[in-house]
Each structure stands twice: as C-alpha cells, then as structure tokens.
Design brief:
Structural class: alpha+beta
Distance between the termini: 37 Å
Oligomer: single chain
Strand order of the largest sheet: 1-2-3-4-5-7-6
Number of helices: 6
Strand content: 15-25%
Helix content: 25-40%
Largest sheet: 7 strands, mixed
Radius of gyration: 15 Å
Order of helices and strands: HEHHEEEHEHEHE
Number of strands: 7
Length: 172
C-alpha cells in the first residue's frame, strides 16, 4: 500500500454487507483464533454501534473492530455467543481489532482505539478491557492499557493462547 492510499483509510460503522469481507479477513489474520460466522453476526446484531471497518478510498476493506459493553472480569470465551448485552455493563470490551498487513503502520489501530474510548465514555463506562494475544501487550500498553492478573480468568485466557492476558484501561 502506498503512503497516499494509507492516508485514505477511514474507520466507519460496519454494515451487514461488510460481514462477508470481515469474516474473510478474520480467516487470514486470525489463523490461530477461529470464530464461527455466527459470532460476528451476533456481535453486530447486539451492538452494531461497536462494530467498525477500515475502508480504503476505493471501498476495499483493510480491517475491522468488534466491541461491546460487558461485565468486567467476565471475558467472553473465544468463539462463544453472548446471548445479550448485560443490563448493567461496567466495561467496554474490545472483542477484536484486526488489520490486514497492508494497513499496519498507517496509524489506523491507535485511531480506532481513540474512537472506541469515546464510544465507551458515551456509554458511561469507566473502563475498557480486552484479551491481548500475539505478543500485542506492548501495543496495548502504548494505548493506556495495563495487564491485570485475575485467577478467575486463567482458564478462559488459556482458551485463546498461552500468551493471552487480560488488559484494562481506565477512562476516568
């Protein structure tokens, strides 16, 4: 991707027509973290305003973000359906932020984290949380997240990978 087209990448809300591309990107980006198509469909149905795609100037998609309000320290297991968003969520959960290699280094990842922080604040939530995988702790720390060790999450984290860890960012 050229520098000029890198600057033409913009985040927008995901639409139903984007799901085929999102699922295809996930298969390429997350070879070790497979999730059924139903997971993507459900997240969008339950909380569409937390689902974004990274679009190039020609309409091509280069990444996505799937997020939703949730209960702190009750991280959803990999490849699991939520059923519903909790009535009284207390964290904004970053389920997945994924970028194709062509868009990495474009600043798109920090931009979506900022957008998501604003969304979390709009929802009245004081924290954002996620499961870090693929040695991404350093990136998340630069975005204001800290590793939090919680014994009750250990088994769930292992369902992701041996290096998975829970991370938290306070918004207030």
């Amino acid at each position: 991707m050229s520098t000029s087209s890198t600057h033409a990448l913009n985040w927008r809300l995901m639409e139903a027509g984007d799901l085929v591309s999102v699922i295809a990107m996930a298969a390429v980006i997350h070879t070790d973290f497979y999730e059924d198509d139903a997971v993507y469909l459900e997240r969008m149905r339950l909380y569409g305003k937390g689902c974004f795609v990274l679009e190039g100037q020609n309409g091509e998609l280069f990444g996505y973000a799937i997020t939703h309000p949730w209960q702190l320290y009750t991280t959803p297991a990999l490849n699991s359906l939520l059923g519903q968003i909790p009535d009284h969520p207390n964290t904004y959960y970053l389920h997945d932020i994924a970028l194709l290699p062509a868009s990495r280094g474009s600043g798109a990842a920090p931009r979506i984290v900022s957008i998501l922080a604003d969304q979390a604040k709009t929802e009245g939530l004081e924290t954002m949380s996620l499961v870090s995988v693929n040695n991404s702790v350093g990136f998340w720390q630069k975005q204001g997240f800290e590793v939090v060790s919680r014994p009750e999450l250990e088994a769930k984290l292992k369902s992701y990978s041996d290096d998975a860890c829970f991370m938290l960012r306070k918004l207030t």
